[in-house]
What does this fold into?
Amino acid sequence: MSVANYFESLDYGLAPEADSNVRDWLKGHDASFGHFIDGAFRPSKDGKTLSTREPATGDELAKIAQGSAEDVDDAVAVATKAQASWEGLGGKGRARHIYALARMVQRHARLFAVLEALDNGKPIRETRDLDIPLVARHFYHHAGWAELQDTELADYKPIGVVGQIIPWNFPLLMLAWKVAPALALGNTVVLKPAEATPLTALLFAELAARSGLPAGVLNVVTGDGATGAALVKHDGVGKIAFTGSTEVGRIIRAETAGSGKSLTLELGGKSPFIVFDDADMESAVEGVVDAIWFNQGQVCCAGSRLLVHEGIHDRFIARLKERMNALRVGHPLDKAIDMGAIIEQSQLERISALVGKGVEEGAEAYVPDIQTPENGCFYPPTLLTGVEPASTVATEEIFGPVMVAMSFRTPDEAVALANNTRYGLAASVWSENISLALDIAPQLKAGVVWVNATNLFDAGVGFGGYRESGYGREGGLEGAYEYLKPNAWSARKPRKPVPPVPVVEATDSFEPMAVDRTAKLYIGGKQVRPDGNYSLTVISPKGKVIGEMGEGNRKDIRNAVQAARKAAGWATASTHLRAQILYYLGENLAARTDEFVARLSAMTGVKKTDAEREVETAIGRLFTYAAWADKFDGAVHSPPLRGVALAMNEPIGVAGVICPDEAPLLSFVSLVAPLMAMGNRVVAIPSERYGLIAADFYQVLETSDVPAGVLNIVTGYTKELARTLADHDDVDAVWAFGDREISEMAEARSVGNMKRTFVDNGLATNWYDPKVAEGRLFLRNAVQVKNIWIPYGE
Amino acid sequence: MSEIIPMGDTGTSAPGLHGNAIARNAGHALELDWINEIQVNRSAVERRTSTLGGRRSVKKDAQAGWLLKAITCIDLTTLNGDDTAARVRRLCAKARQPVRPDLLEALGVADRNITTGAVCVYHRFVAEAVAALDGTFIPVAAVSTGFPAGLSPHDTKLREIEASVADGAHEIDIVVTREHVLTGNWQALYDEMRDYRAACGEAHVKAILATGDLRTLRNVARASMVCMMAGADFIKTSTGKETANATLPVSLVMLRMIRHYQERTGHLVGFKPAGGISTAKDVLAYQVLMKEELGRRWLEPDLLRFGASSLLADIERQLEHHVTGRYSAFNRHPMA
It folds into this structure.
């Protein structure tokens, strides 16, 4: 077109970003890359390769190495060797390196941006304006944590070698989210980028080495799922950090169960985008564009379920459709587009199939009449209206540029619809009424809530999910802990087996007999008989029958979980109230010290003074968590915008607790109290051997104003009960302390609903040592952090 | 929705304006509901405007075409205490021939009769400008109603409008009484604007909101809506004399109000950002915003004007660069 034509048409014309520098870089490597191990590229041991393509054209960009288990071995060995020296550099020494990485990213920003756009298919605008600046920001921020580590995180040390597996939707950004904290805090890394988008990771590793990062500290092994699996299984890896689908997250959880590997999982989502009738509607429409047509909708936290107040629904949808007509889809390097290419054909087909399914199930699809490139992997922005919560498209993550819309009548209904999902990654709330918005945000089951905004990210603000969207946080101090382990736990040794149960001896005593007592289960604030109506005998070390306790079964666990679920008021009860009740528990336990001392001595055979110490410590622990109840506060983050992000420590929900045999009263209290203090409801399985102590304890509960259902106690065979608890899809967390097998089982079986797990892997805890057995280490596991972003300004 | 009240002249746009002629905004009875329901989230508005530049890039031939169009939308302006008749004549000469003919030839648009959208002066120079532009279709716009503060007696303001119209002004840029907005006195604002519109007769009226004085985006949105209901043909951001001039966020809010008003009444209202738009890059950003928010139709001078004095010189330099491939200098282009 000529100038004169443009003068008339005022069309945009072509505005392509040049890609010659990237092509030169590829050519410099003969468009073929090995793994980056020990500071240099090296081919796969078996010589196998894969290709990575441009989604926009289908053309091959480069060949990459297909990593085998041997390659992973290699990389882990190198990382292990480098780790001690890297840790030994100290926080300040490492800070220099991480800072250098931030500067390196800035110096090569355009090279990264263009390469990312080519390899992934996302618009250059996004890589240039969002991905790459955020990458630099992450390294800056974490250079800071390295700098401060020796003083601010002195009670922790790095985990060691970390295996990281990242997805194709934000290849370099996900690298930064994972690599920056891991390296900053003294770990070394083996990174497995997505097979579809490995190039920016390889470029990063190459430039990092050039900017002085020691060899072996950051290793990149490329390949497909099999490569990732080899990394997950590797014994030399102390932690796996994974971002990807919930399906693969489940496999990783099951695979690493019992291994002692720490795990961070950032998984899928079906995040709600809630528009109230007092929202700035025009801005909310624009918010939808940012929510679901950002990165072609291939965003784990994409606002993909539009919930609009019924009163404005039709107007909103009409305006949204009009807005969609102005969207532009084109080549990723075109600087005048909103959306680029979908990652690959299979993904495109999956999106099409889901949209087809949605329409089949009654939804109406709106696709604007706009041009999309003829070749390559493109899908138009799509809006599905008339979607019901029961529709497939309302529950399945589409991972494409498809919004599904529903309406609601009241704020309560908006919350109910928003939470009606297995996921819990993010949510967006639009209202100009601050009281309404700040009332809704805490009620949403999501790790990130954006008020009048969407898809905001910052290195200083934790990001991560609730429910099946995964666990662990990335970013800020919340994320830093994920790459550290407490010094206090480093001396833990495998637990010694309890002595075998002696043979019961016939009694020959004619002393007056005490009145018989029947120990029951404690569910929903009531003493109840076990469903099966069987009992277990508790025998003293000398073979004397001390009593009998209920043998709970599956149904008792079911009932207990149901009672705990019902006690939802505990989560929102004031922290002052929770503190008072925990103090009162301590007070009432103190009043019955003699009774508990006698019971402990009789059951476990400990000396009276030891039993007294256990009861005294248990009382102290209750007081400690009463003290913490109104003090384990969140934080107010200051991301780089006019506004704040509130990091709130929220209870996880219903937690199952499996207690060990040692110090049966103290360990029970030490595990149950932090959960209660933070507003969780608990189903506890006391020590199998010494469970009678819990039966005594529920009498204390009954006198201490603990609301019904907040703490439920089911005695019986630990393994059987623990299995039911770990399997239960309405249990949000499970804490397993005791045999190593119990830890492994709890982790392996947590995958049904991706419970948070907290286990000791059979390592004994010294329950008397407050550094090891109480405080923040436990509290952090009793909460999940929700970050509420609140941009403001009139 | 209330019945549309015809208000004054509803004839077609002034001669010399490009595009299909559109009916003038006939106004609408004051609807307080339309004002009260307005919500503006500043952070969200700023996010939209700050990312738009990255979403739409206009380069090469397209950029030259867009910049030429921008010239046709410029209200070439002089509003200074030291203005004289000769200064105004020089401005008018530039308005007639805003770009060097050799450049227009090279760009292939010599036959398009490219002029600025209007010349904008104080009342004192209206007659001078009308005479200087004789034989062209370039309208003369007069700032009025006690510009820039707008605090003269109401009757004096109406007389000022009438005098300018009598001297041949085709367009009147009025200023609103900021107090009415700041105190939420929408009826007073509406009445004032309606009187201005009536006094203008056939001349088109642009309502300057002085957004820098209104401070908040919600105030801007409400004032926009009231002025449109009272019959403004254009809403305009600034006098150029406030501490804050036109900005993209303010403009976005005004454009959204223009769209709402059109949805409700069917009337198309024009937009004029003014003050501080001095580079080709700035003007492209506004054009993109117009196109994205309101569509292609709003890029023509009957619905878009730029109040500017130094902008033209920068556009000329960009056009020469487009033709020669070499960066240009101000002294290579005749001054206004």
